[in-house]
Amino acid sequence: MANVTLRLFASAREVAGTGSITYEVDTVQELLTRAENDLGEKFSDILSISRVWINGEPLEGDSQISDGDEVAVLPPVSGG
Q1: Which domains does the chain have, with CATH numbers?
Q2: What order of strands is seen across the sheet that includes strand 20-25?
Q3: What is the pLDDT of residues 14-27, one digit of tens each?
Q4: Which residues have C-beta within 8 Å of that of residue 25, sequence separation ≥ 6?
Q5: How far apart are CA 43 and CA 15, in angstroms?
Q6: Which residue has the higher pLDDT, 39 or 62?
Q7: Interval 3-12: pLDDT, tens
Q8: What are the CB-based long-range contacts (under 8 Å, 24+) for 39-44?
Q9: pTM attached to this predicted model
């Protein structure tokens, strides 16, 4: 298992009440499932419309992760 930091931005950060959480997991999917379980339905709703990046690259499918990796949840942002 790897220690991985989940970075949260915009509305995901607001719902979580923090900008980052560290988990010990094997895959990105396991990380996101644990975060959904910990942070609840509002976070799940935000995650479903967000982009997920791993170490600065867009995530494609489920990926193995390594110790020290960073996974970012980037919700759509609007403003005016």
Answers
A1: 2-74 (3.10.20.30)
A2: 20-25, 2-8, 70-74, 51-54, 57-58
A3: 999 999 999 999 99
A4: 1, 2, 4, 31, 34, 65
A5: 6
A6: 39
A7: 999 999 999 9
A8: 39/15, 40/15, 42/15, 43/12, 43/15, 43/16
A9: 0.91
Q: Find how far residue 5's CA is from the centre of its chain.
A: 8
**64, amino acid identity:** Q
The Cα 49–Cα 11 span in angstroms is 11
What is the tens place of the pLDDT at every residue in 22-48?
Answer: 999 999 999 999 999 999 999 999 999
Sign of the Cα torsion 52, 4, 30, 12 reads: negative
Alpha-carbon span 16 to 69, nearest angstrom: 20
